[in-house]
Amino acid sequence: MSGIPIISVVGKSDSGKTTLLERLIAELKRRGYRVGTIKHDTHGFEIDHPGKDSWRHAQAGSDVVAIASPQKLALIKRLESELTLDEVASYITDVDIILTEGYKRADKPKIEVHRKVVGGELLCSPQELLALVTDEPFNMPVPQFSFEEIGALADLIEEKFLKRREFPLVSIVVDGKGVPIFKDFTRQIVAKTVKGMVSALQGGIGRFISIKIDLGEGEQK
Which has more confidence, 189 or 101? Predict the structure, then answer.
């Protein structure tokens, strides 16, 4: 599947995932890239507060509550089951790359953060890893960086995921599952077809195009 590149930063508790992400985000921003982030919270969270207007909307039964101001937008959606990473990422547009904290079980390239004091085996196999950020060396065929080598890590990400592309990025998600598009030619055909249809509409010209289609129960067969 090809879309906005998604890289997951994973590691044990207290290994320094958030600190690494802070530095990596800052470095990519310094280079002019637009960055989106996703935090995976396995324990659940609340960003709304009892008594607030938005909380009252949800209590009344609203399935989705949006809070908008001139500076920020927040979307609160109650879920019956956890969304896949691709589904969560579909809410993020107009960025060059998405970095996640967590999602070690998702099928995305990963940067594992390891500290000797935390100890234990690595969470990921070499095949899953884009890179390893560590304070001790590992005998494995994976690029390894110290916690101070943020620039070199950003170089690796830039080279593999952010260089100017000959073909457009296209992603298709059906019922939360990514549909693989293996050939550049196929991506180009899809992109040109959609661009041609959308550009004929008022306001339909731009770099990022996102289309969601609900076929309805009667159309799924």
Answer: 101
- Average pLDDT of the segment spanning 89-104: 91
pLDDT over threshold 60, residue 168: yes
- The CATH fold assigned to 6-219 is Rossmann fold (3.40.50)
> Is pLDDT of 197 > 60?
yes
**Predicted pLDDT at 93:** 82
> Per residue, what are the HEC states of the chain?
CCCCCEEEEEECCCCCHHHHHHHHHHHHHHCCCCEEEEECCCCCCCCCCCCCHHHHHHHCCCCEEEEECCCCEEEEECCCCCCCHHHHHCCCCCCCEEEEECCCCCCCCEEEEECCCCCCCCCCCHHHEEEEEECCCCCCCCCEECCCCHHHHHHHHHHHHHCCCCCCCCCCEECCEECCCCCHHHHHHHHHHHHHHHHCCCCCCCCCCCCCCCCCHHHCC
Domain ranges in the chain?
6-219
